[in-house]
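I would like you to sit down with the pair of lines that follows and say whether C-alpha cells and residues agree.
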Amino acid sequence: QFPFGRRLPCDIYWHGVSFHDNNIFSGQVNKFPGMTEMVRKITLSRAVRTMQDLFPLEYNFYPRSWILPEEFPLFVAEVRMMKDSDPSWKPTFIVKPDGGCQGDGIYLIKDPSDIRLTGSIQNRPAVVQEYICKPLLVDKLKFDIRLYVLLKSLEPLEIYIAKDGLSRFCTKPYQEPTLKNLHQVFMHLTNYSLNIHSGNFIHSDNVNTGSKRTFSSILCRLSSRGADVKKLWSDIISLVIKTIIALTPELKVYYQSDIPAGKPGPTCFQILGFDILLMKNLKPMLLEVNANPSMRIEHEQELSPGVFENVPSPVDEEVKVAVIRDTLRLVDPQKKKR
C-alpha cells in the first residue's frame, strides 16, 4: 500500500474508491473514469430507459422507474392512468435516494401522494420504481443476488462474469406488501448492511445456509426442483451485457476526456457488483449496479455491547477470493511478455 501515492511505474494500480491520478502513464488501473457517476441510481435509470425506448423487448429486465423531483408530475399522472385502466392494479413503489448506498434512505409507498415522498423529493433526488411483488422465495425468504462482473475493456468491449456470486437474504418471512407491513425492512429489503442488524440474521459457516449463501447453492436447489438453470444463466448474462451496453457511450466520453487517444495513459478495468432479483417465474430483474462492491471476506461479530471482532466469512471468501484471483489473471501484464 502507498497511502501517499507512488511515483515509480507499476503494472497494476489498485485504487480503493475512484481513479483520478494524472501521474499514471502506463500499466492498468482497476477503475474506469466516470464509472461511479454512471452507476448512480438516476444515471443508470436514465441510461437503461433510453435503451428501453429504443428496444422495449430487449430491455424489459429493469422495473418501471421515474426520476424525482423532475418526473414527479409524470409519475402521478401515469400511476393514475394505469389505475383508471385497471382498477384491480394495486401497486407498491420503492423509493431509492440517488446517492444512497447500503439501503440508506430506501422506503416503500403505495401511492404517489404519500407524505414521506412529497415531503422529501425537493431536497433529495431519488428514483422511484415499481416494486417487484412476486419474487422467488427460498425458505419463505426474499433474497437478491450479487454477481461480480469484470469490465476488462471498453474498446473492444470485453466483459467477464464470475461463475459464482452471493445470495443475500431477508431475515423475516416474505409477505406481499400491504399498508401494515410496508415499513418492515427485514421483510422487503435484501441489503446485507440492513439485515445484519436483525436479530434473525444468521452468520453461516457453510455456503448453503444462513443469511448469506453462494449463488451456486441456490442454483443447485432450483435445479433439483426441475428449474431450467441453463436458461436462467443465459438470461442473467444477457441482462449484464445489455446493461453495460447502455452505459458504454457515456463511459467512453469520460474515458476519452481523462485519457485522450494518442497520449500515454493507463488502460482501465473494473469489477462491478450487479444486484439482481429473481422473480417467481425465474426472470432476472436488475436492481442496481455497484461501482465499488465490497471485497471484505470477514464480518464483524459483537462480542459484548460495543465490542466487535472480525470473524472469517467462508461464503465471502469462497466467492470473492476467486473474483480477485481471476481478475488478476485476466489482466496479467506479464502474459504479453511470455
In short: The domain at 12-38+134-332 is CATH 3.30.470 (D-amino Acid Aminotransferase; Chain A, domain 1).
